[in-house]
């Protein structure tokens, strides 16, 4: 039920046209949860069915008790909403009123926003959709920008004359205050009657009745005294003693930020001044120098902390001055300061310091810095909700947090969490962010898990144009998920299609092949195929099998008509993680040739791969292959599982590769890899070639080699070509994993098995054989292969003999092909060194000059050449960002091909 007041208008958008946002894809479990939540909201009368042209997407918020909260992403609606200027009460005036009281009662509303009725003209703007229906709110929803101002207006109206006499409300925080107990009972009765008449419902578990001491708006109130809550100053007051000269220096710098408010600051801080370096050389030398504070230094440290946490510097909040939040993060934790901008300088209101969990230490810097802001909002919500404030950070990427179209999922859900706040983000240099920096390096509060985890279930766009192919294709059902297949069996609804992108695990692993029925349908709509079907006797290279036109090969393969199905096949066998992994022409053609046919397939495959942007951006310099085992890394960024290295072992003849993502490159890791992933699965190798790293030359490795009877050889120092087999695979692997990984490259260990599998199931350029076939004596079965449903088991007594002969033949042929391949690699290397020529209108990529990590994009683009200034200087224009021009020389350009179908 709603409170007994007129409906509120909270979403004024002027003449702006309706905004429609697509729904985020979700799992069956989450779809069911959305259905259950909407049914509850319907039963309570908080939503109603809608025909509104407006729509915002649903998000699911996981609370600390593991239950889910139903929320709507109103970012786009908030951007066009006219801001409500209704004032919040000044906090300093609230404290003035409370300072004369002795007894206090605090009320907490039960789902306060949902008790406020929403005007009929605003309801359509709150609309959202589930897979079953379209709804709109009848009450004030969470997440709209004018929510705090609207609720403050409502509670002010309800409290009426009692406000500023014996009752106050700061948004949904209501407090009743009195000087005597009898007076307090009378005031309490009056307010309860007012709330009852208004039909306001309270949450009794969070209410405090007739207390002589209470915490309100971040401050402790008792006997007329108002002091900062211990939670607001513990972040600084309980910081540890400096352990190094660098920590002492950072504390002095942090305190110095407020020196104008600290009388005799120079005199007090003088004993600690020796830790502040005057040159960069001194700074580097003193960073890790361990120290123990003397009595004078300890006294100065404690005195400065005491001053910074008392009213000499610290101030009660005052709404007359703007608020500001400064945040920072380090390897150890986060730090934040809430300040107000006084005419004489910034005054601190509260401090925050918190340690990281082990998982949080592995987050990217952007995630850690953003988390600091989220914790600050959680802690200081009462101060920051409903007002304009500034957020200062020394992490420049966060200044574009709300403008980024693509962002990692953790920061995405945090971005949703800050929807209700009205803030401006400002970049400041690290040197001026001294107090948060110090607090983050001396964290006090114990680590906590990520608060209010949000499951967004957003399928981001793939790196190729695969989704565009599907969305505009007449054969929309050509790619299905396995879950869809099961659903179709029960519902017979062949038009129910869900497209999952390769950015999610479901999208990567659950795409199934093009069905026979779809191929038959496409052939019947193709003039070339219909002509062959009608005159099949004239075409000796084709046969008909169960109404499907097939090319007469051994075994026969389906004919694929011109159009979207060819593009889908090319995407599957080149772009997808499970079946393509962005391998080259020589490896992709045999895979497709063994499964499909169309006349121009060689030309189309060649053009598709040459025009693949991820391949061009990550294409490594190829190196000459021979043998063995090595660690690859450290790889930056570290994955979510903490993996930094890849250990790999390659068979000298078959080129079969075994890989594993690991956390370190120690001897113990190498020994475990040999035992668990090599010996126990493939047997004991006769000879192992490694480099001279300590992880391979240790006593533990020698003991293992002796136990299994294996010869251990070492490559020539400073000559990696000796162990070039692994070196070559590593160079190939980097590019393929980078092309398949997410934007932050933190899931590369998820892509590693796919890349290794595709490497092992593709024809090797040196041996001209398939490593998998040479290892197992049979052809690999790929995820999209058609398989006979009738499986039989038979025993052939000649099988072992035939298999041995078959493998012997493969090995001999592989040796011959390795020798032949030597010259071909030399020719290719020489060809790559030639200087290409460029013409106006051609597509190119531009070299990325500041590459920091292994998986960073090597080339940006695509660009188109629009003007030639000199024989080697051009003006290029970005294809997808027409306003972006660059003047470049030919040495940073890479020619790429345009797709012609």
From TrEMBL:
Protein name as catalogued: Uncharacterized protein
An MF annotation (GO) of this entry: RNA-directed DNA polymerase activity
Keyword Hydrolase in annotation: yes
Top-level taxon: Eukaryota
CDD domains in the record: RNase_HI_RT_Ty3, RT_LTR
GO biological process: DNA integration
InterPro entries recorded: DNA/RNA_pol_sf, Integrase_cat-core, Integrase_H2C2, Retrovirus_Pol_polyprotein, Rev_trsase/Diguanyl_cyclase, RNaseH-like_sf, RNaseH_sf, RT_dom
Gene3D superfamilies attached to this UniProt entry: 1.10.340.70, 3.30.70.270, HIV Type 1 Reverse Transcriptase, subunit A, domain 1, Ribonuclease H-like superfamily/Ribonuclease H
A Pfam family: RVT_1
Start and end residues of each Integrase catalytic domain: 616-779
């Amino acid at each position: 039920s709603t409170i007994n007041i007129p409906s509120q208008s909270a979403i004024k958008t002027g003449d702006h046209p309706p905004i429609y946002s697509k729904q985020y894809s979700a799992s069956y479990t989450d779809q069911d949860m959305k259905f259950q939540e909407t049914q509850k909201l319907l039963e309570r009368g908080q939503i109603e069915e809608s025909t509104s042209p407006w729509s915002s997407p649903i998000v699911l918020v996981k609370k600390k008790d593991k239950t889910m909260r139903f929320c709507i992403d109103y970012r786009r609606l908030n951007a066009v909403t006219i801001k409500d200027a209704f004032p919040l009460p000044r906090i300093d005036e609230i404290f003035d009123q409370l300072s004369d009281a002795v007894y206090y009662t605090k009320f907490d509303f039960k789902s306060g926003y949902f008790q406020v009725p929403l005007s009929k003209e605003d309801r359509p703007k709150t609309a959202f959709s589930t897979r079953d229906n379209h709804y709109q709110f009848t009450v004030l929803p969470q997440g709209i920008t004018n929510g705090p101002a609207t609720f403050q207006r409502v509670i002010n109206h309800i409290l009426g004359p009692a406000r500023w006499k014996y009752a106050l409300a700061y948004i949904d925080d209501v407090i009743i205050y009195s000087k005597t107990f009898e007076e307090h009972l009378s005031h309490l009765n009056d307010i309860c009657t007012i709330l009852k008449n208004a039909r306001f419902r309270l949450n009794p578990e969070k209410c405090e009745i007739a207390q002589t001491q209470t915490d309100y708006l971040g401050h402790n109130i008792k006997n007329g005294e108002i002091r900062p809550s211990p939670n607001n100053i513990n972040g600084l007051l309980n910081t540890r003693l400096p352990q190094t000269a660098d920590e002492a220096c950072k504390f002095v710098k942090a305190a110095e930020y407020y020196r104008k408010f600290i009388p005799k600051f120079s005199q007090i801080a003088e004993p600690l001044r020796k830790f502040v370096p005057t040159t960069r050389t001194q700074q580097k030398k003193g960073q890790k120098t361990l120290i123990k504070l003397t009595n004078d230094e300890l006294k100065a440290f404690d005195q400065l902390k005491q001053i910074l946490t008392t009213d000499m510097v610290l101030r009660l909040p005052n709404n007359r001055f703007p608020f500001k939040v400064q945040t920072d993060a380090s390897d150890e934790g986060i730090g934040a300061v809430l300040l107000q901008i006084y005419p004489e300088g910034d005054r601190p209101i509260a401090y925050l310091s918190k340690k990281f969990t082990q998982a949080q230490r592995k987050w990217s810097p952007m995630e850690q810095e953003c988390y600091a802001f989220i914790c600050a909002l959680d802690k200081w919500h009462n101060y920051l909700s409903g007002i304009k404030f500034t957020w200062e950070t020394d992490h420049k990427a966060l200044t574009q947090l709300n403008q980024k179209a693509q962002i990692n999922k953790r920061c995405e859900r945090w971005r949703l969490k800050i929807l209700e706040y009205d803030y401006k983000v400002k970049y400041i240099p690290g040197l001026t962010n001294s107090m948060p920096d110090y607090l983050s390096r001396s964290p006090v509060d114990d680590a906590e898990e990520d608060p209010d985890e949000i499951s967004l279930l957003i399928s981001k766009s793939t790196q190729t144009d695969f989704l565009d192919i599907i969305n505009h294709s007449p054969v929309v059902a050509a790619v299905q998920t396995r879950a869809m297949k099961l659903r179709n069996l029960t519902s017979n609804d062949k038009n129910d299609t869900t497209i999952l992108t390769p950015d999610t695990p479901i999208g990567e692993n659950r795409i199934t092949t093009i069905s026979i029925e779809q191929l038959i349908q496409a052939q019947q709509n193709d003039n070339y195929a219909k002509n062959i079907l009608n005159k099949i006797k004239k075409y000796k290279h084709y046969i008909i099998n169960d109404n499907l036109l097939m090319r007469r090969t051994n075994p026969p393969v389906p004919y694929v008509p011109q159009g979207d199905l060819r593009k889908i096949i090319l995407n599957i066998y080149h772009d997808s993680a499970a079946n393509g992994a962005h391998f080259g022409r020589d490896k992709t053609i045999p895979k497709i040739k063994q499964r499909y046919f169309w006349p121009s397939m060689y030309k189309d495959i060649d053009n598709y791969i040459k025009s693949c942007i991820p391949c061009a951006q990550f294409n490594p310099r190829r190196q000459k292959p021979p043998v063995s085992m090595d660690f690859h890394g450290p790889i930056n960024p570290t994955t979510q599982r903490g993996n930094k290295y890849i250990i790999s072992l390659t068979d000298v003849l078959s080129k079969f590769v075994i890989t594993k993502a690991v956390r370190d490159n120690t001897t113990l890791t190498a020994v475990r890899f040999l035992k668990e992933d090599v010996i126990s699965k493939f047997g004991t190798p006769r000879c192992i070639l490694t480099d001279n790293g300590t992880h391979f030359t240790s006593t533990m490795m020698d003991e293992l080699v002796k136990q299994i009877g294996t010869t251990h050889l070492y490559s020539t120092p400073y000559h990696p070509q000796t162990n070039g087999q692994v070196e070559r695979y590593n160079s190939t692997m980097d590019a393929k994993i980078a092309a398949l990984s997410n934007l932050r490259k933190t899931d590369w260990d998820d892509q590693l098995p796919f890349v290794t599998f595709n490497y092992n199931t593709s024809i090797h350029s040196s041996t001209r054989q398939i490593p998998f076939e040479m290892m197992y004596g049979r052809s690999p079965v790929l995820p999209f292969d058609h398989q006979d449903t009738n499986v039989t088991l038979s025993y052939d007594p000649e099988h072992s003999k035939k298999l041995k002969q078959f493998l012997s033949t493969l090995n001999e042929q592989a040796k011959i092909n390795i020798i032949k391949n030597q010259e071909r690699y030399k020719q290719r290397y020489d060809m790559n060194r030639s200087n290409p020529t460029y013409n106006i209108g051609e597509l190119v990529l531009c070299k990325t000059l500041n590459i920091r990590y292994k998986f960073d994009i090597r080339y940006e683009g695509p660009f188109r050449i629009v003007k030639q200034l000199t024989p080697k200087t051009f003006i290029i224009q970005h294809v997808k960002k027409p306003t972006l021009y660059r003047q470049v020389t030919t040495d940073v350009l890479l020619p790429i091909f345009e797709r012609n179908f």
